[in-house]
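Section 5.1 Outputs to date
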Amino acid sequence: MSTTEPDALLGPADIRELAAALGVRPTKQRGQNFVIDANTVRRIVRTAGVREDDVVVEIGPGLGSLTLALLEAADRVVAVEIDDVLAGALPSTILARMPERAARFSLVHSDAMQVRELPGPEPTALVANLPYNVAVPVLLHMLDRFPTIERTLVMVQAEVADRLAAAPGNKVYGVPSVKANWYAGVKRAGSIGRSVFWPAPNVDSGLVSLVRRDPPKTTATKAEVFAVVDAAFAQRRKTLRAALAGWAGSPAAAETALVAAGISPQARGEALTVEEFARIAEAKA
Protein backbone atom coordinates (compact mmCIF):
# COMPACT_ATOMS: atom_id res chain seq x y z
CA MET A 1 0.00 0.00 0.00
CA SER A 2 1.30 3.42 -0.89
CA THR A 3 1.95 6.05 1.78
CA THR A 4 1.01 8.97 -0.41
CA GLU A 5 0.42 12.37 1.12
CA PRO A 6 -3.21 13.55 1.33
CA ASP A 7 -2.50 16.37 -1.12
CA ALA A 8 -1.52 13.89 -3.85
CA LEU A 9 -5.19 13.86 -4.89
CA LEU A 10 -6.72 16.61 -6.95
CA GLY A 11 -8.94 19.28 -5.41
CA PRO A 12 -11.14 21.90 -7.14
CA ALA A 13 -8.30 24.39 -7.55
CA ASP A 14 -5.97 21.71 -8.92
CA ILE A 15 -8.57 20.57 -11.46
CA ARG A 16 -9.22 24.08 -12.72
CA GLU A 17 -5.49 24.87 -12.86
CA LEU A 18 -4.77 21.71 -14.85
CA ALA A 19 -7.68 22.35 -17.20
CA ALA A 20 -6.60 25.95 -17.78
CA ALA A 21 -3.01 24.91 -18.49
CA LEU A 22 -4.22 22.39 -21.04
CA GLY A 23 -6.85 24.67 -22.54
CA VAL A 24 -9.47 22.04 -21.66
CA ARG A 25 -13.17 22.74 -21.34
CA PRO A 26 -15.33 19.70 -20.53
CA THR A 27 -17.49 18.85 -23.55
CA LYS A 28 -21.09 17.66 -23.59
CA GLN A 29 -20.29 15.67 -26.73
CA ARG A 30 -18.13 13.31 -24.68
CA GLY A 31 -20.23 13.56 -21.55
CA GLN A 32 -17.31 14.99 -19.59
CA ASN A 33 -17.86 16.03 -15.99
CA PHE A 34 -14.70 16.05 -13.89
CA VAL A 35 -14.84 15.01 -10.23
CA ILE A 36 -13.29 17.77 -8.10
CA ASP A 37 -13.71 16.27 -4.62
CA ALA A 38 -11.01 14.02 -3.14
CA ASN A 39 -13.38 12.56 -0.55
CA THR A 40 -15.71 11.40 -3.32
CA VAL A 41 -13.04 9.55 -5.29
CA ARG A 42 -11.75 7.89 -2.12
CA ARG A 43 -15.33 6.87 -1.34
CA ILE A 44 -15.66 5.35 -4.81
CA VAL A 45 -12.45 3.36 -4.37
CA ARG A 46 -13.60 2.20 -0.92
CA THR A 47 -17.05 1.21 -2.20
CA ALA A 48 -15.44 -0.67 -5.09
CA GLY A 49 -13.50 -2.76 -2.57
CA VAL A 50 -10.22 -2.19 -4.41
CA ARG A 51 -7.48 -4.41 -2.96
CA GLU A 52 -3.69 -4.11 -2.93
CA ASP A 53 -3.35 -6.91 -5.49
CA ASP A 54 -5.96 -5.57 -7.92
CA VAL A 55 -5.27 -4.58 -11.50
CA VAL A 56 -7.88 -1.90 -12.10
CA VAL A 57 -9.01 -0.62 -15.48
CA GLU A 58 -10.50 2.86 -15.54
CA ILE A 59 -12.48 4.28 -18.47
CA GLY A 60 -12.40 8.02 -19.12
CA PRO A 61 -9.90 9.14 -16.47
CA GLY A 62 -10.10 12.77 -17.56
CA LEU A 63 -7.66 14.88 -15.56
CA GLY A 64 -6.87 12.02 -13.16
CA SER A 65 -8.97 12.58 -10.02
CA LEU A 66 -10.13 8.97 -9.66
CA THR A 67 -6.94 7.59 -11.22
CA LEU A 68 -4.81 8.92 -8.37
CA ALA A 69 -7.16 7.52 -5.74
CA LEU A 70 -7.09 4.12 -7.47
CA LEU A 71 -3.29 4.17 -7.55
CA GLU A 72 -3.27 4.71 -3.78
CA ALA A 73 -5.12 1.43 -3.28
CA ALA A 74 -4.45 -0.93 -6.21
CA ASP A 75 -1.40 -2.78 -7.48
CA ARG A 76 -1.78 -1.42 -11.00
CA VAL A 77 -4.09 0.96 -12.87
CA VAL A 78 -4.73 0.96 -16.62
CA ALA A 79 -6.63 4.03 -17.84
CA VAL A 80 -8.39 4.20 -21.21
CA GLU A 81 -8.81 7.74 -22.54
CA ILE A 82 -10.11 8.82 -25.95
CA ASP A 83 -9.37 12.56 -25.67
CA ASP A 84 -6.02 13.48 -27.23
CA VAL A 85 -5.17 16.33 -24.84
CA LEU A 86 -6.25 14.49 -21.69
CA ALA A 87 -4.43 11.31 -22.73
CA GLY A 88 -1.28 13.29 -23.40
CA ALA A 89 -1.34 15.04 -20.03
CA LEU A 90 -2.32 12.25 -17.63
CA PRO A 91 1.05 10.44 -17.34
CA SER A 92 2.71 13.72 -16.37
CA THR A 93 0.07 14.40 -13.73
CA ILE A 94 0.61 10.93 -12.23
CA LEU A 95 4.39 11.37 -12.24
CA ALA A 96 4.18 14.81 -10.63
CA ARG A 97 1.68 13.94 -7.89
CA MET A 98 2.43 10.28 -7.17
CA PRO A 99 5.95 9.54 -8.47
CA GLU A 100 6.38 6.43 -6.32
CA ARG A 101 3.37 4.81 -8.05
CA ALA A 102 3.95 6.07 -11.60
CA ALA A 103 5.51 2.78 -12.77
CA ARG A 104 2.28 1.02 -11.80
CA PHE A 105 0.23 3.17 -14.19
CA SER A 106 -0.45 2.52 -17.89
CA LEU A 107 -2.39 4.61 -20.37
CA VAL A 108 -4.31 3.32 -23.38
CA HIS A 109 -5.15 6.16 -25.76
CA SER A 110 -8.26 4.78 -27.42
CA ASP A 111 -12.02 4.70 -27.66
CA ALA A 112 -13.05 2.20 -24.97
CA MET A 113 -15.46 0.55 -27.41
CA GLN A 114 -12.48 -0.32 -29.64
CA VAL A 115 -10.28 -1.78 -26.88
CA ARG A 116 -9.55 -5.47 -27.44
CA GLU A 117 -6.56 -5.90 -25.13
CA LEU A 118 -4.85 -4.10 -22.27
CA PRO A 119 -1.16 -3.89 -21.33
CA GLY A 120 0.22 -5.84 -18.39
CA PRO A 121 -1.56 -8.40 -16.21
CA GLU A 122 -5.23 -9.18 -16.81
CA PRO A 123 -7.57 -6.70 -15.11
CA THR A 124 -9.39 -7.85 -11.98
CA ALA A 125 -11.58 -4.79 -11.43
CA LEU A 126 -13.23 -1.99 -13.40
CA VAL A 127 -13.82 1.34 -11.66
CA ALA A 128 -14.93 4.34 -13.68
CA ASN A 129 -16.88 7.57 -13.87
CA LEU A 130 -18.48 6.67 -17.18
CA PRO A 131 -19.55 9.37 -19.65
CA TYR A 132 -23.34 9.50 -19.50
CA ASN A 133 -23.90 9.14 -23.23
CA VAL A 134 -22.00 5.84 -23.66
CA ALA A 135 -22.15 4.30 -20.20
CA VAL A 136 -24.15 1.15 -20.96
CA PRO A 137 -22.44 0.05 -24.20
CA VAL A 138 -18.97 0.69 -22.72
CA LEU A 139 -19.81 -1.25 -19.55
CA LEU A 140 -21.19 -4.23 -21.47
CA HIS A 141 -18.25 -4.21 -23.90
CA MET A 142 -15.69 -4.28 -21.09
CA LEU A 143 -17.47 -7.06 -19.20
CA ASP A 144 -17.71 -9.09 -22.38
CA ARG A 145 -14.17 -8.52 -23.57
CA PHE A 146 -12.39 -8.96 -20.24
CA PRO A 147 -13.84 -11.93 -18.34
CA THR A 148 -11.14 -11.61 -15.65
CA ILE A 149 -12.87 -8.46 -14.35
CA GLU A 150 -14.44 -9.81 -11.17
CA ARG A 151 -15.73 -6.61 -9.60
CA THR A 152 -17.01 -3.43 -11.20
CA LEU A 153 -18.11 -0.12 -9.75
CA VAL A 154 -19.28 2.56 -12.15
CA MET A 155 -20.60 6.03 -11.57
CA VAL A 156 -23.34 6.83 -14.08
CA GLN A 157 -26.38 9.06 -14.43
CA ALA A 158 -28.85 8.15 -11.66
CA GLU A 159 -31.47 7.13 -14.20
CA VAL A 160 -29.00 4.76 -15.87
CA ALA A 161 -27.98 3.37 -12.48
CA ASP A 162 -31.64 2.61 -11.74
CA ARG A 163 -32.05 0.82 -15.06
CA LEU A 164 -28.93 -1.27 -14.66
CA ALA A 165 -29.86 -2.38 -11.16
CA ALA A 166 -33.61 -2.86 -11.75
CA ALA A 167 -35.23 -6.23 -11.04
CA PRO A 168 -37.90 -7.92 -13.19
CA GLY A 169 -41.25 -6.23 -12.71
CA ASN A 170 -39.73 -2.80 -12.11
CA LYS A 171 -40.99 -0.18 -14.58
CA VAL A 172 -37.42 0.78 -15.57
CA TYR A 173 -36.29 -2.84 -16.02
CA GLY A 174 -35.16 -3.27 -19.60
CA VAL A 175 -32.36 -4.19 -21.99
CA PRO A 176 -29.50 -2.79 -19.84
CA SER A 177 -30.83 -4.62 -16.77
CA VAL A 178 -31.06 -8.00 -18.50
CA LYS A 179 -27.77 -7.79 -20.36
CA ALA A 180 -25.85 -6.65 -17.27
CA ASN A 181 -27.36 -9.60 -15.41
CA TRP A 182 -25.94 -11.97 -18.01
CA TYR A 183 -22.47 -11.11 -16.69
CA ALA A 184 -22.95 -10.13 -13.08
CA GLY A 185 -25.05 -9.61 -10.02
CA VAL A 186 -26.00 -5.94 -10.12
CA LYS A 187 -27.05 -3.53 -7.37
CA ARG A 188 -27.14 0.18 -6.59
CA ALA A 189 -24.23 1.14 -4.37
CA GLY A 190 -24.98 4.76 -3.49
CA SER A 191 -25.71 8.21 -4.87
CA ILE A 192 -23.42 11.08 -5.83
CA GLY A 193 -24.51 14.72 -5.68
CA ARG A 194 -23.98 17.24 -8.45
CA SER A 195 -21.68 19.58 -6.50
CA VAL A 196 -18.65 17.25 -6.66
CA PHE A 197 -18.40 17.70 -10.44
CA TRP A 198 -17.06 20.43 -12.68
CA PRO A 199 -19.08 21.47 -14.49
CA ALA A 200 -22.01 20.48 -12.28
CA PRO A 201 -24.31 18.23 -14.37
CA ASN A 202 -28.04 18.75 -14.66
CA VAL A 203 -28.70 15.29 -13.23
CA ASP A 204 -27.73 13.31 -10.17
CA SER A 205 -25.33 10.38 -10.41
CA GLY A 206 -25.46 6.89 -8.95
CA LEU A 207 -22.97 4.14 -8.18
CA VAL A 208 -23.61 0.65 -9.53
CA SER A 209 -21.81 -2.44 -8.27
CA LEU A 210 -21.46 -5.51 -10.48
CA VAL A 211 -19.97 -8.77 -9.22
CA ARG A 212 -19.08 -11.30 -11.90
CA ARG A 213 -21.00 -14.55 -12.00
CA ASP A 214 -21.40 -17.35 -14.50
CA PRO A 215 -23.93 -16.67 -17.28
CA PRO A 216 -27.12 -18.75 -17.36
CA LYS A 217 -26.63 -22.40 -18.25
CA THR A 218 -28.07 -22.66 -21.75
CA THR A 219 -27.34 -24.19 -25.13
CA ALA A 220 -28.20 -20.84 -26.75
CA THR A 221 -25.38 -18.40 -27.46
CA LYS A 222 -25.15 -14.99 -25.82
CA ALA A 223 -25.97 -13.40 -29.19
CA GLU A 224 -29.10 -15.53 -29.50
CA VAL A 225 -30.26 -14.63 -26.01
CA PHE A 226 -29.56 -10.93 -26.52
CA ALA A 227 -31.55 -11.01 -29.78
CA VAL A 228 -34.59 -12.16 -27.80
CA VAL A 229 -34.02 -9.44 -25.21
CA ASP A 230 -33.74 -6.73 -27.87
CA ALA A 231 -36.92 -7.93 -29.59
CA ALA A 232 -38.88 -8.18 -26.35
CA PHE A 233 -38.14 -4.61 -25.31
CA ALA A 234 -38.34 -3.00 -28.76
CA GLN A 235 -42.10 -3.03 -28.23
CA ARG A 236 -42.24 -3.35 -24.48
CA ARG A 237 -45.97 -2.66 -24.14
CA LYS A 238 -46.85 -5.63 -26.31
CA THR A 239 -47.21 -9.18 -25.09
CA LEU A 240 -44.26 -11.42 -25.83
CA ARG A 241 -46.35 -13.29 -28.42
CA ALA A 242 -46.63 -10.04 -30.40
CA ALA A 243 -43.25 -8.51 -29.52
CA LEU A 244 -41.32 -11.63 -30.54
CA ALA A 245 -43.26 -12.24 -33.76
CA GLY A 246 -40.57 -10.68 -35.94
CA TRP A 247 -37.81 -12.53 -34.14
CA ALA A 248 -39.57 -15.90 -34.35
CA GLY A 249 -41.02 -15.45 -37.85
CA SER A 250 -44.67 -15.12 -36.84
CA PRO A 251 -46.86 -14.69 -33.74
CA ALA A 252 -47.65 -18.41 -33.83
CA ALA A 253 -43.96 -19.34 -33.95
CA ALA A 254 -43.28 -16.97 -31.06
CA GLU A 255 -46.06 -18.60 -29.05
CA THR A 256 -44.64 -22.06 -29.74
CA ALA A 257 -41.20 -21.02 -28.49
CA LEU A 258 -42.68 -19.33 -25.42
CA VAL A 259 -44.79 -22.31 -24.47
CA ALA A 260 -41.81 -24.63 -24.96
CA ALA A 261 -39.82 -22.38 -22.62
CA GLY A 262 -42.56 -22.43 -20.00
CA ILE A 263 -43.35 -18.73 -20.48
CA SER A 264 -46.85 -17.33 -20.88
CA PRO A 265 -47.32 -15.84 -24.38
CA GLN A 266 -49.28 -13.05 -22.68
CA ALA A 267 -46.37 -12.05 -20.46
CA ARG A 268 -44.28 -8.96 -21.18
CA GLY A 269 -40.53 -8.68 -21.36
CA GLU A 270 -40.27 -6.59 -18.20
CA ALA A 271 -41.42 -9.60 -16.15
CA LEU A 272 -38.70 -12.02 -17.29
CA THR A 273 -35.31 -12.87 -15.80
CA VAL A 274 -32.22 -13.35 -17.94
CA GLU A 275 -32.55 -17.10 -17.36
CA GLU A 276 -36.06 -17.03 -18.82
CA PHE A 277 -34.88 -15.13 -21.88
CA ALA A 278 -32.21 -17.79 -22.30
CA ARG A 279 -34.88 -20.51 -22.21
CA ILE A 280 -36.83 -18.76 -24.98
CA ALA A 281 -33.72 -18.51 -27.16
CA GLU A 282 -32.99 -22.17 -26.51
CA ALA A 283 -36.57 -23.19 -27.38
CA LYS A 284 -36.39 -21.54 -30.81
CA ALA A 285 -32.91 -22.93 -31.53
